[in-house]
Design a protein that fits this description.
211 residues; Rossmann fold; five-stranded mixed sheet; 5 helices; 27% strand; electron transport; ETF_a/FixB; Rossmann-like_a/b/a_fold; flavin adenine dinucleotide binding
């Protein structure tokens, strides 16, 4: 079974304290963790750590930044990569990851033959284990290895965000251009309330109609 020994890689000490109750054997804190640091710049630092520790699997969130980092690590470590995994299992001693294909119409199962499997997990795939606030584990600092071409962030600007994180919703009622008017959204919200769901919409509705 996978996950018998779990190690966590985090960007700062606050994150280290947040994940410690979930039972990692050790937590690695990345250097150069200021607010303007780009996640992709950590690829060389994490690659050096993984070469030293020889893990069987590295799990990342299937976000834009997570996938960009995973791709860099895959090249540097010559490791197989599966994005947006919906399930992970051990079959005949090999790590296998299931992911959607053909626009979500089918699932494919990939058997990973490399010594290291790099997998980005889709939201909601893995439920967190029970936390134990009494759990303690060592933390180690991972030296920053600057990439040859470093991505620099000069400024951050606030972006108007949705009031709901759809990636964490159990159910979503989708809205498309089948609605004739914005007033029709009322019945959609009523349906979502009955189903205990959130409301999402297609890009034409959000960007074209500005509903």
């Amino acid at each position: 079974q996978w996950g018998q020994q779990v190690y966590a890689i985090v960007q700062n000490t606050d994150q280290a304290q947040a994940v410690m109750p979930y039972g990692p054997k050790c937590i690695y804190v990345l250097e150069q963790n200021d607010a303007l640091q780009r996640t992709e710049n950590y690829a060389e630092s994490i690659a050096a750590l993984l070469k030293d520790k020889h893990p069987a699997m590295l799990l990342l969130a299937a976000t834009k930044r997570g996938k960009a980092l995973a791709a860099r690590l895959s090249v540097q470590l010559n490791a197989a990569l599966v994005n947006d995994a919906a399930a992970v299992d051990i079959v005949d001693g090999h790590i296998c990851a299931e992911h959607r294909m053909y626009g979500g119409l089918a699932f494919a199962q990939e058997k990973i033959n490399s010594s290291l499997a790099i997998i980005t997990l889709a939201p909601g795939v893995q439920e967190p284990c029970a936390s134990d606030n009494s759990h303690q584990c060592p933390t180690e600092t991972v030296p920053y290895v600057a990439p040859r071409h470093e991505i620099l962030c000069r400024e951050r600007r606030a972006k108007a965000a949705s009031s709901v994180d759809l990636s964490k919703a159990k159910r979503v009622v989708g809205v498309g251009r089948g609605l004739a008017a914005q007033d029709d959204l009322k019945m959609v919200h009523e349906l979502a309330a009955v189903l205990n769901a959130e409301v999402g919409c297609s890009r034409p509705i959000a960007e074209g109609e500005n509903w």
